[in-house]
Amino acid sequence: MRGDDALGPCLVKRLEGHVDALCIDAGSAPENYLGKIIKASPDVVLFIDAVDFNKEPGYYQVLEKEEILKAGLTTHDLSPKMLLEYLAGETKAKIYLLGIQPKDLGLGQDLSAPVQKALNELEKELLCMKPT
């Protein structure tokens, strides 16, 4: 619904059933899925979201929990600090954010070309990763 903010749900849909991981489209309320995540007892949690890095659209970067907290990055209702600290305490998982620089977050917009390109790259990279 909000242009490039749809990258996360699009990537989750492409990965679901093709990776050995629980894939959740949490929309704009990841706090609603904490129970499901905790029950899965993951070693790693990867959030995917649009983040303004002040870079070119389509730029992406993986941030660790401490970097997320320091930067205060969020487009969601619940404080990221509360969510991340609760999740880390309940799961002992390593927590990351795959942030993608959006071009357009307008209502009713499709993914922009640079973010669509990043989506295709990320899908290929994540499907090729082997668990360690």
Average pLDDT for all residues:
85
* Helical/strand content category: alpha+beta
> How is the CATH topology named?
Rossmann fold
> How much helicity do the residues have?
25-40%
Global outline: globular
CATH superfamily: HybD-like
Q: Output the strand order for the largest sheet.
A: 1-3-2
Query: Proportion of β residues?
Result: 5-15%
Estimated radius of gyration: 14 Å
* CATH class membership: Alpha Beta
CATH architectural type: 3-Layer(aba) Sandwich
Q: How many domains is the backbone divided into?
A: 1
Low-confidence stretches: none
The total count of helices amounts to 5
Give the terminus-to-terminus CA distance.
36 Å
What does it look like?
The protein has 132 residues and is α+β, with helices and mostly antiparallel strands. It has a single domain (3-128), classed as Rossmann fold, CATH 3.40.50.1450. Helix content is 39%, strand content 14%. The chain has five helices and three strands. It has helices at residues 7-15, 34-40, 65-71, 80-91, 113-128, and strands at 44-50, 60-64, 94-100. A three-stranded mixed β-sheet has the order 1-3-2. The longest helix has 16 residues, at 113-128. It is globular and about 40 Å long.
Offer a few descriptive terms:
single chain, 132 residues, alpha+beta, Rossmann fold, three-stranded mixed beta sheet, 39% helix
Brief sketch in words of this structure:
Helices cover 39% and strands 14% of the residues. The protein is an alpha+beta fold.
Tell me the layout of helices and strands:
Layout lengths: L6 H9 L18 H7 L3 E7 L9 E5 H7 L8 H12 L2 E7 L12 H16 L4
Parallel strand pairs: 1-3
Antiparallel strand pairs: 2-3
Helix pairs in contact: 1-5
